[in-house]
Write a structure and sequence with these properties.
The protein has 14 helices and no strands. It is mainly alpha-helical. The protein folds into two domains: 106 residues, Helix-hairpin-Helix base-excision DNA repair enzymes (C-terminal) (Endonuclease Iii, domain 2, Orthogonal Bundle); 101 residues, Endonuclease III, domain 1.
Length: 262
């Protein structure tokens, strides 16, 4: 199932076929951070550094109830803010970033999140990854989000050999139409969290195994590989998929006890 060197499938064609199959496998792929507007997504993405989206989603309801916008957050007591976001880790540094970030939004953008990469990356605690998350999911501006999952899979798929996030973004970007960048990011990250894990990829149940140059790095036995599946909405959770297609939000499903955990 591993592609041989010189196989008559161009890199671009193979990459686009992989994305198409992943899109069919994860039709519900979305940003896994809960948010209602660009400000909430920006804050949640800053908090997601060095922790899981699940942990952030458990923390942000109380945070946004207390500080619903940039202006209220800019006036927050730092110690109180630290206590609210403590579960996300590195809470002192993150609190400092959020206070600086919100003050910049108030001072320079009238409290609104700017819809451009150039402006976003000037904000405290915001790099290209965070900016692309916000642009793609809050403003509909295509962007490739290179997190640890995306970078790992891009290298396994041989879309790039680089460990540098900016180089990965640029080298992968030329393989796809710009309009597909945001959903490509969701598809790849979903796959990395559920099947193509860092240490034990579940190759035996991978929907793109026949196209993957790295097939065989993980467990190839389908029965054993199936036991490695992780995260909510992994293949086999069609019950949750049906509910999401019916319009239920991730927050509603969690409140109903469906256990959308990592």
């Amino acid at each position: 199932m591993k592609l041989e060197e010189g196989a008559p499938v161009t890199l671009k064609r193979r990459a686009r076929k992989i994305n198409r199959i992943l899109g069919e496998t994860y039709p519900y792929a979305v940003a896994e951070l809960d948010f209602r507007n660009a400000f909430e997504l920006l804050v949640a993405t800053v908090l997601s550094a060095q922790t899981t989206d699940v942990r952030v989603n458990l923390t942000t309801p109380a945070l946004f109830e207390r500080y619903p916008d940039a202006r209220t957050l800019s006036e927050a007591d730092e110690m109180e803010l630290q206590e609210i976001i403590r579960p996300t880790g590195f809470y002192r540094a993150k609190a400092n970033s959020l206070l600086s970030l919100s003050r910049r939004l108030v001072d320079d953008y009238d409290g609104e999140v700017p819809p451009s990469l150039e402006d976003l990356v000037t904000l405290p605690g915001v790099g290209r990854k965070t900016a692309n998350v916000v642009l793609g999911n809050a403003f509909g501006v295509p962007g490739i989000t290179v997190d640890t999952h995306f970078g790992r899979l891009a290298r396994r798929f041989r879309w790039t050999a680089s460990d540098d996030p900016v180089k990965v973004e640029m080298e992968v970007g030329v393989l796809f139409d710009r309009k597909d960048w945001t959903m490509l990011s969701h598809h790849v990250v979903f796959h990395g969290r559920r099947i193509c894990h860092a240490k034990k990829p579940a190759c035996g149940v991978c929907p793109v195994a026949a196209l993957c140059p790295s097939y065989g790095e993980g467990e190839t036995d389908p029965v054993k590989a199936a036991k490695l599946l992780k995260y909510e909405l992994a293949p086999g959770r069609e019950d949750l998929l049906d509910l999401m297609r019916a319009g239920r939000t991730r927050a509603e499903l969690r409140e109903a006890g469906h256990g959308l955990g990592g």
